[in-house]
Specification:
single chain; 21 helices; about 65% helix; about 475 residues; elongated; mainly alpha
Length: about 475
Amino acid sequence: MNSSALPNLLAALSIPQEFSRFNKLTDEQILAQLFRWKNDVCANLTSLGDLLVTRHGIESLPVDEQADIAACVAAFDGPGEWIADGASSLALSILDPLTEPHIPSPVLIRILAHHLKPAFAANPHPRLNLQTGRKLHQPADTQDAYEGQVWKTRVGTGNVLGWCLRNIEASTYESVWHLILPPVMTFLDDFEASYKLRGVQLVSDLISRVPPELLKRTGVDGLLFTSLSGTFNHLRDPLTPDLIRTAVPTTLELIDLTTPPSPAPLPPTAALSSPDRNMIKSASSRVNPVTRYEHLSTLLGSCLIGTVFLYAYADPEAILAATDMLPPVLTHIGIGAVRWLKALIPQLTHVLLPSAVPSPTPPHDVDLRLKVSSLRALCTCIETCAPRMYLWKCNIIDAIGRAWAGAMDIEHASSLALEYKALLRMTCVKLAEACPSIIQEEYQQLLTFDSILFNGLVGNSCSTTSDT
């Protein structure tokens, strides 16, 4: 191989800028050129791998060449219209020697400083000190952060950054914090949903390895939480459901990392020695349950209930996504969720009620999926807020009874329809566990009204009680 072989291969693997607006392209000639380039990607990656074998592996090359190769190839490790089938596995086979166990610090710094930083230099984030990576107390007086956006023409930048975040050593974060955070926040706070979604994914990669003390000390924990909360405002986009499903678990990960759950109750300290008391006091002072509850309350009350459920009611896919995300949020907040029962119970039970005008056709898939999702969330709500369910048992059993009667009209025995009926029964079981009196009162009333219809719904609960 001659000396130009490596530069030629890297040039051939350079992603055309037109992929940045691929979904908006209508020029058939440009599309044909992009598809031809895409079809050659796997062959070029294979040739690059073969070349590296003749040069004793990527790790034997100079640092600048290692960084150049990694910055080029890592663009194929992740999502993107430019990634051909099989390209990701070929890219990882080239990159794996650099990630055993972590990216060498000189290579990482060169990628971040020479390949990523210049792309974002024209659009500095207004809430960050670019020299330290710390949060600014006041937004910087800069030009419009959305003007120009040269970084969007550097296709694959998000994948390169994600690869770095997933393979960086935790102890290295301190030295490269000012290089990592600006591009992550630029993605996260972008006005386009596709880039914002990629930003949420990058935050998930970031917090999976970053030391929590670094987030707190630089004030970035609050900055990330605020930006993640803002993703729920994108309600008029086809990517809204994906944003919700990605932002909720990422926000929960951030909350768990920066404000972990309070430990078990501490033993009385009277009988402990002074050093032991100081150690227990020090350990307990690091956990701030108030901040944790406030963040969880914002996620549930402001983001999901106060934004998605309130303003995206006409978008069933967005409502479905938000409902799917309720169980983990309710599990995190626990009994504190009773504060929102006045919003949650009507939201989750109204979906179950049959339409006022019966439809001659089977329910749409999204409608049935939303019912199933609502029942899952309702079961979690009953479990976590059991002490308050006596106030809502009549509302719930009324909706469940009507839903059960409507479910008898579903003739197609799909797996989703079977799960729907099973969850209706499970909800009655959960409700009986939270409010035992309902078995002898409301459930018996259902059986008295129509034992043939409702025996399949509550019959087992009533028979179990009578047997005992």
